[in-house]
Amino acid sequence: MPAVRRSTAPSQPAQPATTRSTSAQAISLSKARQDNAREIAEDYVEAIADLITLTGEARVVDLARTLGVTHVTVSRTITRLQRQGFVRSEPYRSIFLTESGAALARDCKSRHETVTAFLRALGVRRETAERDAEGIEHHVSDETLAAFLKFLHSQG
Length: 156
Known about the structure:
Layout: H1 22-55, H2 60-67, H3 71-83, E1 87-89, E2 95-97, H4 99-121, H5 126-136, H6 142-154
Antiparallel strand pairs: 1-2
């Protein structure tokens, strides 16, 4: 029987069946990071608005507890939200929403309520609808949200 000769060249990593170009992947990842940053901004302004409504103020410690993050994370995010024009804050003081921050908070709350109501109309339990709406509200398109509202109004 003849000897089987094996290659001594180092094996090459398997290439995926389909590959995206580096620039397409970079664009995709950049958009994902932007979407994530927008979602975080929306969660923060909504939480700030809720805290102000409930307690009259929003403090870093209260936001950290509400959002389940550290006070360092809250401080860094508040700095970013200040640069974006959504909040204003001074060291050791409460956090306040700017006009654009308050408008974003109202929009987020409305989206959340619409998604929750839609899921409840489909028969989803309240706790599950609230939890699911928290993720869906950030990603649902205006067209789909309008369809949710149309459905809800048709249910009377």
